[in-house]
Amino acid sequence: MAEERKLEAYVFIHELAGAEPREVLRQFVALEGVRYAAQFVGSFIAFGAVEVADLGQLHRLTAGGAWKAGVRCEWSVVVKAGVRAAPKRGSPPYCALVRADTVGDPREVLDSIDAYLDPRLPPNSEEFRYASAVVNGLGFGLLVEFGSTSLDELYRLILEELRPREGIASTDSAFAFLPDNELP
Fold first, then answer.
1. Residue 151 has what pLDDT?
2. What is the mean pLDDT of residues 63-67?
3. Is 7-79 a domain of CATH 3.30.70.920?
4. How far is CA 14 from CA 78, 158, 159, in A?
């Protein structure tokens, strides 16, 4: 019998209730299955990445530990990882997370974007990162991550490389400066 893959999920946090934001994120990242959290500037104030055994464990996390820690949010699961990887597996100092609404099947749009961007962008490293995934979400079907040593480069990647691509209806971007911010 083939080993089942873990369920990857993302949390777009809109409110951190009960304590100072860093303390809420520390409590959240200490929960079983949470592998990443950081503050962002955009339509969500923080973001987390989770890897759990199954949907039941994700339900227990969302209704139990995450809620008790003060996390008020939207959750999305990874339906399909992009050609390089799903987002948040490491990043240079500046990070952009872009939620994109698509026209048509988001899996086909992801394949098209990956085919366009992958050969044009540098390899993932400490200075650059590109990752993508089809996710479920209200008003978006893709999550794209760009990481760079420059905030201006993130703006350029979003405005000149991602948004003009066929199949992208709209985008919603959030930004983070990760040194002294992200919690592994």
1. 97
2. 87
3. yes
4. 20, 22, 24
